[in-house]
Amino acid sequence: MFHYVRYLRVLDLRDLYDLFDDDKFRRDIYENFFSGQLTKFDFMAQTSGTRQQKVRGKGFSIRKNVVDIGDVIVKNAPMLEELTEPIVGEYNILSAAIPRWAPDLSRLQSLELWDGKTLGDEAVRNMLHAHCPLLRRIRVYQWFAPSRHFNKPEKLTWTYCRREEDSDHKLAEFISNMPANTLSDFENHGDCGIGPETCLALTRHDKSLRALALALTEKGIEGLGLFQNCTNIERLKLLDLQAPHDMKATMNDVLSDMVDWLKECKSLREVTLTNFISAPDILTEVLNVPEIQLEDLQINARENSTYKLKDHAEFHLAIGQQKRLRSLLLKADAEPFSPTARDSLVSQLVQLKDLRYLQLAKISDYFQDGHVQDLSKHLVDLEDLLVTGWQLGDASLAELHRLIELKSLAFSGASIFTTAGLLDYINKLGPGNQGLALSIDMAETIGALSSEEQDIVRDALMEKVGGRFEYQTSRG
Question: Which one, of 123, 131, 137, lies nearest residue 105 by Cα?
């Protein structure tokens, strides 16, 4: 133990597990690692049986070994504030360890769990509530049902990877028993069965909750109308796991409650809605509230969950009012083609002078060279730009030299660029474009750059700003 262990604030066990689990971690590397005082942690030496049985039991041994090392670190690091569990398939590592560790984690503020069912364990819940009063940030990735397997670790394991049915109740119970208004940041990524119970429990922290990121099934979406009092939210991320749900048609009462709630969140700065086909219905009125000034807005979706560009002119007008936006991602269906809707969108985008990051996926499928030129003339602080477009060519590059801080440029739609046009653009790049990544993802086959021409462009970009060039032709 070195003296600095007493000053550790963060214990993230993910890389340790990945190291031990890597096939390259063997022979000399393995033996060198588990030497000297670390010999006692040699997980393969602790596994009895034949070599084949040891290999089969390797996963169990690694999990145990990571916890054994964690035991030592936690015992000697009294200032730990953050704890992160490794990602290990359907297993969890910390459910058995936390009851031992909790008395030494009095300063714990952030807990990141791969498997949320650890929070459903009564012993874990009681220890965390008793010994970790400063806990304010919880992140959960999945919530698996208890695994069924043979008792001996060297046997092949047979497991269920489904979600535990009462996870909503158990998670709600954990959150409800925390001291009121202590939780500031809650996030889940996969299906944790979150529903009205958990949503209601989170409202016990309405004054402290600042960041909320929820991955939800239908019953969870139905609980979004319960957050009326949580008006201090600054960062909101919502993912529909069973998209699409047309909330305007099937959950209009929930939609109305959500709009009323978010309009009162005057400190809102970041919003991400993924797979919400009703994103414009949720946000149009919210973005028109003068006190709400977003810095980051992302509307992303899989193919069957995108909203239609032509049907939401008011939403894009509202986006144009968000003058402090620095990052914007929009994915929407540009079909059926509407020149009016396309041009109106561009007219609003060019109002956003502070933009640094702009990604337009599918929504820009009918952009032409002039639209890219308009963006380049007005959004001169852009550092990252992605557009799709239709038959974009060298004319799209004519004004891009104005973006003197651009570091990433991607054309992901049908395009026909020439070597001369690309070299002319590269020649105009400056010091602020150092490291520029230029991607052309769907070049038309007819008129495509040859391998030799691609190399010429690639070498020129590298020589000018140390950048890289990626080029793919359309596959039809």
Answer: 131
